[in-house]
Amino acid sequence: MSTVLLIQSKDAISGVSIPEPVKQYFSQAMSGEAWSYTYRGQEGVFYLEKAGKGQGHAESERLRKAGSSIAKSLNADKTNSVNVINVDATAEWGVALAEGLALTNYKFDKYLKDREKTALSLKIITYSGAGAEQWNAVQTIVESVFVARDLVNEPVLGLNATGLADKFVQLGQQAGFSVEVWNKAKIESQKMGGLLSVNKGSQDPPTFSIMEYKPANAKNSKPIVLVGKGVVFDTGGLSLKPTPASMDYMKCDMAGSAVVGGVMYAVGKLNLPLWVIGLVPATDNRPGENAICPGDIITTFDGTTVEVLNTDAEGRLILCDALAFAKKYEPELVMDFATLTGAAARALGAYGSAMMGTADESVKNDVKAAGDKVYERLAEFPLWEEYSEEMKGDISDLKNLGKAEGGAQTAGAFLKYFTNYPWLHFDIAGTAFNHAPDAYRVKGGTGVGVRMVVQFLMNKANG
Ligand code: BES
Ligand code: MN
Ligand code: ZN
C-alpha cells in the first residue's frame, strides 16, 4: 500500500493522519519549490502532489500527468494498492490526479509468454476526499477506455470483422445492451454496397453491428446514434499503402468502432438514462484477387453511385452506408468516429481531433466543452460548400477522392451527403494511436474519444 496526498494550502497537511516523519517532511515540502515530492522510509512510500500550479482544466491535465508518473513509480516498486487522498483540492482536480494514475495502469500483454511475471503490480486504487462520490464512475470510464485500447491493440490476425462483432456481443452481455450482428448475406440483402465493395478484396466476410441501449428512464425520445469506422486492417487495397509509418500501424483503423464499443460499455455500466445506438460497419481493406479497382463505380445503401478513384479512401465508403442507415432512427444526433484522413493528423498532430458537422452551434459547444474537460480536445473544421462540390462525380453521383489539400474536409463533405439529421464527424486519425507513450496516453491504442463522449452524455443526462 502506498499513499498519494493532493494538497493545496500549506496548513492543510496538519490535519492529515500520516506517520509523524512523513508529516514533517511534507510540511517542509509544502514550502518548497517543487510541485511533487516522494517520501520513502520505514513507514512506506508516500507521494505529495501540490494543487494549484495552474488553473481550471489545464491544472486538471497537469495533475493527470502527475498521476501518470506516480503510477509508473508504483509499478516499478511492485506496489499492489494505492490510496489517493484529496486533502483540500477541488473534486475536479482530485479526480483528475487519480484518473491519470488509473489511465496509465494499462498494459496490452496478452501475447507475452511471461505475462504473469511481468504484469503490472498495481491492482487497487482507492480514493477519498472531495470527488469520492465520482470515483466508481471514473473507474468504470477508465475501464471503458481500456476496452477501446484492447480492441485497437489487437492485430487483425486476432480480430477480423467477425471477431470485432463478437466482441461487441460480449460487451453487450457485460454492460447490458443489445447487439444484432448482420452477416454478409444480410448485408448483401440490404444492399450496403459501400461496405461490400471494400470487402471484395478480402478473404473474411464483413459484419454490420447494431448495438442498442434503451433504458425505461431514457430522457431522450429520439436516439443518439454513434457510428464507428471498423476497418480492422487498412492495406489501402489495390491503392496499396507503403509499410513504414503507414501500413505498419493500420490495425488501428477500427479505432472509431472502438470508441463506439467503449462508450456503449460505459453507458450500460453507468446506467445512463439515455437511449443510445451504436452502428459499426466492419471489414478489412485488402488487395485480394477480386478487390475493387480504381475507377470502379459502386452503389451505396441509399442508391448513391460512387466512383472509387482511390481504394485507400475506404473509410468513407463503409461509413456512408451506416450514416444512410441511421436515417431510419430519426436521431436527435449522430456522432461518427473514424481514423479517416492523414490530412486531419497532419493539421492537428496528436494534440487534438478534428470535428465537423451540421449539428447546432449549442451542441457543438457542449461537445467541445466535454472535450476540454477531459482534455480530448476538438478543433472544428469547416464544411464549406466547395468541399462538397469537389466530391461530385463526373460519371457518378460522387467520387471518393478530392484534392490532397483540405482532405479532412472533403472526406467530411462526402459523409455529409448521406446525412439528413444533426450530425458530427470526428476524425481521430492523429489521436487514436501513439507511436511513443505520452504520459497517461500510453503507447499503442489511446482509447481517445471514449472519455469525451461519455462526459458529453453524462452532462446531457444531468442537464
Ligand atoms: N485509414 C486511413 C487514414 C489514417 C491515416 C488513419 C493515418 C490513421 C493514421 C484512411 O483510410 C486513408 O487511407 N486515407 C487516405 C485518404 C486519401 C486516399 C484520400 C489518406 O488520408 O491518405
Ligand atoms: Mn485507407
Ligand atoms: Zn482507413
What does this 3D model show about the protein?
- By secondary structure, the chain is α/β, with parallel strands linked by helices.
- It folds into two domains: about 1-130, Leucine Aminopeptidase, subunit E, domain 1, CATH 3.40.220; about 140-460, Aminopeptidase, CATH 3.40.630.10.
- It contains 15 helices and 19 strands.
- Helix 9 (about 255-270) links the parallel strand 9 (about 230-235) and strand 10.
- Helix 6 packs parallel to helix 9 (about 255-270).
- The longest helix has 21 residues, at about 55-75.
- The protein is elongated and about 80 Å long.
- The chain binds ligand BES, manganese (II) ion and zinc ion.
- Zinc ion (ZN) binds near residues 234, 253 and 315.
How are the secondary structure elements laid out?
Elements: E1 2-7, H1 20-29, E2 36-41, E3 44-50, H2 56-76, E4 81-86, H3 91-104, H4 115-118, E5 124-129, H5 135-153, H6 161-175, E6 178-182, H7 184-189, H8 193-199, E7 207-213, E8 224-228, E9 230-234, H9 255-269, E10 276-285, E11 296-299, E12 305-308, H10 315-326, E13 333-338, H11 342-348, E14 353-357, H12 361-374, E15 378-380, H13 385-390, E16 398-399, H14 407-416, E17 423-427, E18 433-434, E19 444-445, H15 450-462
Parallel strand pairs: 1-3, 1-4, 4-5, 8-10, 8-13, 9-10, 12-16, 13-17, 14-15
Antiparallel strand pairs: 2-3, 6-7, 7-10, 11-12, 14-17, 18-19
The protein binds ligand BES, manganese (II) ion (MN) and zinc ion.
Residues 234, 236, 312, 314 line the site of manganese (II) ion (MN).
